[in-house]
Write a structure and sequence with these properties.
With about 425 residues, the chain is of the alpha/beta class. It has 2 domains: about 160 residues, Beta Barrel (Lyase, Ornithine Decarboxylase, Chain A, domain 1); about 170 residues, Alpha-Beta Barrel (TIM Barrel), CATH 3.20.20. Helix content is about 30%, strand content about 25%. The chain has 12 helices and 20 strands. The strands form 3 sheets. Strands 4, 13, 14, 15, 16, 17, 18, 19 and 20 form a 9-stranded mixed β-sheet that branches. An 8-stranded parallel β-barrel has the order 5-6-7-8-9-10-11-12, surrounded by 6 helices. The chain has a 3-stranded antiparallel β-sheet with strand order 1-2-3. The structure holds ligand LLP.
Amino acid sequence: MKFSNPHVEYRSGELCCEEVSLTALAARFGTPVYVYSQATILQNFRCLADCLASFSSLLCYSVKANSNLSILKLLGDAGAGFDVVSGGELARVVKVQGNASRVVYSGVGKTQAEIDAALEAGILMFNVESAGELELIRSRAHTLGRQARIAIRVNPDVEAETHPYISTGQTIHKFGVPKEEAVSLYRSAKQAGLDACGIACHIGSQILNAEPFFKAFDEIKSLAGDLETEGVALRFLDLGGGFGIRYDNEQPLDFSRLARGLEARLRGSPYRLIVEPGRSIVANSGLLLTRVLYVKGGPGKVFVVVDSGMNDLVRPALYGSFHEILPLRAGLNGTVRADVVGPICETGDFFARDREMPPVREGDLLALLTAGAYGYSLASNYNSRPRAPEVLVHGKSVKLIRPRETIEDLIRPEVL
Ligand code: LLP
């Protein structure tokens, strides 16, 4: 047992999140249900923020990891800025913060409507990913009479050493523009009267080693130096997010070492560092509670069929990701080797394969750990399954931060 969440533990044989019994939560809200620990979210945020405190920096939480309004509010109140990638994410931030002054906007496919909304909201900067996007931002800012602050997202051509689906910083990837093109984009931005205030990159996600970050940072910093000689004086160096955490036995990224390395590289320079962590703030705070519906045995195989599926948590199906699975009752003796699978009609609908686990029975409750990032935010209604509720635990208090969807919710918008 590894307990990736420091605020989840067995108390008198019962798995608890902070001061609350998870069995009691399952009884109250039903299963499946997402449960988040407020203490863990804030502890993660403060831990990263403390590492950056000795130099000029802004931590922009990456909203895509978990975009629940209550979680955004918690982080905004704690001092976070935000990294958004859509008009929907921007609207969420504006709703909880009342303004967008600490928002950076990334994404390869921003639409005109989204650009207009971001200009009206007065975001900190657009991380621009193509010449066409730069031109659209210029013309919309002109039409709307707004100042557009921009960074060019550079593809630094650095290998991130992570899962190929979440690796983004090489020339084979769709993200950003090559260094050479970036220089000409800054020239056009300057000529067009845009405030070219930053440079950005994001090389991937779940990166455990600091070296690729240093390489990428050195690339954007040296480019910022070149631009300075051309009369483009940048203020922000945005390194993106992607700080790796422990799901299984991984050694998590040593963020304090990364921060110290960045601080040394920034010493004496005029730049403010921006980072965009998502997973490292929310992943280990969240778990998905599910109930065992059936246990069945095939030849040489045990299947534990649970009431949540890939529509609730798609990471194992999509990336083969590992999530620790714990029974809510401690002390089940012995182990079985089983596949933990959902009810969805896809072979990929599994949470674990050939997992050594306690011999659970029908009706037992299980917790899938480290599900706070890219869990609910990637959930879908596949197989017409209503999405699970989300609950935020704080000490002894429990807040339903999103109710369970109903079948009626799914059907209502459709037209016969
Ligand atoms: N900034 C940008 C521009 C990004 O594209 C991302 C993530 C982040 C920041 C935050 O990365 P983080 O710190 O959370 O690693 N669904 C996948 C992860 C996809 C990440 C996409 N971009 C997963 O479940 O592992």
